[in-house]
Fold this sequence. Notes:
Keywords: ATP-binding, Hydrolase, Nucleotide-binding, Transport. By secondary structure, the chain is α/β, with parallel strands linked by helices. About 35% of the residues lie in helices and about 25% in strands.
Amino acid sequence: MAEPARQSDSAAIELSNQSSPTAASSASSPTTMIEAVGLSKFYGPFAAARDVSFSVKKGELVAFLGPNGAGKSTTMKMLTGYIAPSEGYARIAGHNMMDDRIAGSRRLGYLPENGPLYPEMTPMGMLEFFADARGLPLGTKKDQIDKVIEICDLSSVIYKPISKLSKGFKQRVGMSQALLHEPDVLILDEPTAGLDPNQIRGVRRTMRKLSETKTILLSTHILQEVEAMADRVILINEGRKVYDGDVDGLRETGHGDVNEAFHELTGHSEI
Ligand SMILES: Nc1ncnc2c1ncn2[C@@H]1O[C@H](COP(=O)(O)OP(=O)(O)OP(=O)(O)O)[C@@H](O)[C@H]1O
């Protein structure tokens, strides 16, 4: 379990102020795999994320929690280098994701919010495409593809167009793409969104298995998800980090009830 480093809003701001957003070359701990340092994203005057700082150590499984529109996807896109931060910077396995994105991406598997694109491709076609794009050596390409087909249980749909697959299979195809190059860091944006209870069980099982060897940050707005899987919770609301600590600490904040804690910390947003 992560130490109960519960952090108030002001403490969160204090933490980010200690690190200069321009200090991209400063050394990070070798065990720190995901780092957000003062990340903000502005769309005109609107802040989708504001001064978000945290780090995830090797082997942790951290839930990134928040109500709809809190800024989870925006922060994840900045962490993965898909969008540029307005302020701050992100590092994956020590690589700054603006200056050194290719090196960081080799260590990173990313499941975007809406699963895989390329609806006209089959899962096999898509995996071959990504294997080539990622430069997997010919000698290991087939083995790697076979391995993710097995992990994600895709063999029954491997030659069907992705557009014809159920939501659950689409998510698994997205996951297979994220795992293909054997990254040691996974950033997964709502991996259980829209799945039925059996599919959710399957994804949780896969997550637990993967967390034995990988560092995982997964976003969700489902509280049971957090209690079922995570070592630690980072909660954001209206673009700001409002809690960073373990599930027990979150429960205490809500007087024994994580739902209550969520309600208090997110300004009484309805979920
Ligand atoms: N390109 C954009 N232009 C303007 N506003 C944006 C853009 N992208 C996101 N936003 C806004 O930023 C806020 C945060 O969005 P984001 O998708 O990061 O939230 P989220 O926590 O992932 O929500 P959800 O759980 O609904 O996916 C929302 O109000 C959203 O409308």
